[in-house]
Amino acid sequence: MGKSVLLIEDEPNIVEAISFLLERDGWTVRLHSNGEGAVQAVETAQPDVVVLDVMLPGRSGFDILRELRQGGAPSDLPILMLTARGQKKDRELAAGYGASHFLTKPFSNAEMLQAVRDLSEGRVPDLGAKAS
């Protein structure tokens, strides 16, 4: 594939699992582990897809998403939000701020891989769909 993902996540087990999965599929995975500096990390890395956790030390993923969509990144940059809280209000907030897709932890490897592939190819899944 030759495409890159910026993974903004602070949980080491999640970082390791997603990195392994995507690298095995041919992706270059760059990492950022907190909310501070996340927008700058996106601007510097210029990834094809961003995977962004909602709950990060230093700054909320929702705040980062909002800033990215207000000009901190290209408007068509696919952003996949991850959260341990899959409540309807979280999905609505993510959609309102411009998330491309939303996965609830725990998610399957197949769900993650398919979501990243779809987003990189311009296919945007339905944010209202229930992720397991």
Describe this structure in words.
With 132 residues, the chain is α/β, with parallel strands linked by helices. The protein has a single domain, classed as Rossmann fold. The chain has 5 helices and 5 strands, in the order E-H-E-H-E-H-E-H-E-H. The protein has helices at 12-24, 38-45, 61-72, 88-97, 109-120, and strands spanning 4-8, 28-32, 49-53, 79-83, 101-104. Helix 4 (88-97) links the parallel strand 4 and strand 5. The longest helix is centred in the first third of the chain and has 13 residues, at 12-24. The chain is globular. Residues 128-132 have low confidence and may be disordered.
What's a quick, concise take on this entry?
With 132 residues, the chain is α/β, with parallel strands linked by helices. Helix content is 42%, strand content 18%.
Give the topology, please.
Elements: E1 4-8, H1 12-24, E2 28-32, H2 38-45, E3 49-53, H3 61-72, E4 79-83, H4 88-97, E5 101-104, H5 109-120
Parallel strand pairs: 1-2, 1-3, 3-4, 4-5
Helix pairs in contact: 2-3
Task: Name the descriptors.
disordered C terminus, alpha/beta, 132 residues, 5 helices
Radius of gyration: 13 Å
Distance between the termini: 27 Å
Look up the CATH topology. Rossmann fold
Main sheet attributes: strand count, strand direction, barrel closure: 5 strands, parallel
Point out poorly predicted stretches: 128-132
